[in-house]
Amino acid sequence: MTVETAPATVFEPLAADFYGFANELTDAEKAALARIRAHLAAEVKPLITENWEKAAFPFEIIPGLHELGVAAFAWDETKPFPNSAVFRGFAALELARVDASVATYVGVQNGLAAGSVSLCGSAEQRAYWLPKLASGEIIGSFGLTEPLSGSDSAQGLRTTARHEDGPDGGHWVLNGSKRWIGNATFGDITVIWAKDEADKQVKGFIVPNDTPGFVATKIENKTALRIVQNADITLTDVIVPDANKLVNANSFRDTAKVLRQTRAEVAWCAVGIAVGAYEAAVAYAKERMQFGKPIAAHQLVQDLLVKSLGNITASLALVVQVSRMLDAGVQRDEHSALAKAFATARMRESVAWCRESMGGNGIVLDNDVARFFADAEAIYSYEGTREMNTLIVGRAITGEAAFV
């Protein structure tokens, strides 16, 4: 979204932004954020509970998200986005405070799929694929995690890529499997990361999902992020033309460039989930009567809410600063890793307190907190577990790698 084109809209700071971090946004960014919030409240939130329970994706929301601009902030040649990383973070927060699955759809489409093309593609690849991803003409996925390789993706990828010469100028043959790939059951392309048999380096490929040998099967029976259509992918002699090999994706260091950008956004989503649970808990506390007064007037309930707000505030301070560092070009892996590890741990704690404040009614989807409580478990683990992100920071602190 180019925020200068957003219509004038009244921006109201969130009550959960207790220290007013959003005040540093420009007037245009505040107007754009207000527009995003209004659209999500009117067009997305009413569909969430039913679809979460059915483990179905509300496809009708996709055009609106892309028209709004949140589903693929435009990438350009000189810097990743035309607006600040702090603004993009607050946009991710707004998505997550409505639903973590919708935030995940956007994160995969924009941060992982489009991000891979932008950071690792040639000028020609960027010019062809990025506008299609931004408009929603093409839905993308990101295929890194495997059934037997998650935290050890840097060294343990089993999906292979073999180059073959041919009359068409050459192509690659991919074989292997991927797991937990969001959007892949209904998407158009997947960025597949595979180990080159020749030099043993991880490389990236844009693979159309209708390529022969590419099979995506929905993962069923999830207890978190039920709206996200995660897939198991099998790749059997999948032929990818040279033109679809990401030109600048030639080692896991290039994969890490993408993850460095998106990991901070996941931290913002964690804050958004905590905010969504907190807002629901506060509203419930003001309405629920016990012992002749609202439970908001009970000390123990206030204690749970204040502790949750403290976690949100501390996490928000962390992610705002990480985004400032990203804009300044000084953010390193350990900075985004600390933000992700801390914010997701505090999110997990806060949603549990919010659910506790509601008593038995906290497990009912109608009150929203149960959904945030369940979804927090997935956010806590994906895009690098707390333990792996801790070790990234630990290496930066000590100079010693303790991954194995």
TrEMBL record:
It holds the Pfam family Acyl-CoA_dh_1. The keyword Cytoplasm does not apply. Its cofactor is FAD. InterPro entries: ACX4-like (IPR045008), Acyl-CoA_DH_CS (IPR006089), Acyl-CoA_Oxase/DH_mid-dom (IPR006091), Acyl-CoA_Oxase/DH_mid-dom_sf (IPR046373), AcylCo_DH-like_C (IPR036250), AcylCo_DH/oxidase_C (IPR009075), AcylCoA_DH/ox_N (IPR013786), AcylCoA_DH/ox_N_sf (IPR037069). Keywords: FAD, Flavoprotein, Oxidoreductase. Residues 26-137 form the Acyl-CoA dehydrogenase/oxidase N-terminal domain. Residues 255-397 form the Acyl-CoA dehydrogenase/oxidase C-terminal domain. GO terms for molecular function: acyl-CoA dehydrogenase activity; flavin adenine dinucleotide binding. The keyword ATP-binding does not apply. One of its GO terms (biological process) is fatty acid beta-oxidation. SUPFAM superfamilies: Acyl-CoA dehydrogenase C-terminal domain-like, Acyl-CoA dehydrogenase NM domain-like. Residues 141-238 form the Acyl-CoA oxidase/dehydrogenase middle domain. Belongs to the acyl-CoA dehydrogenase family. This is Acyl-CoA dehydrogenase. The lineage of its organism: Bacteria, Bacillati, Actinomycetota, Actinomycetes, Micrococcales.
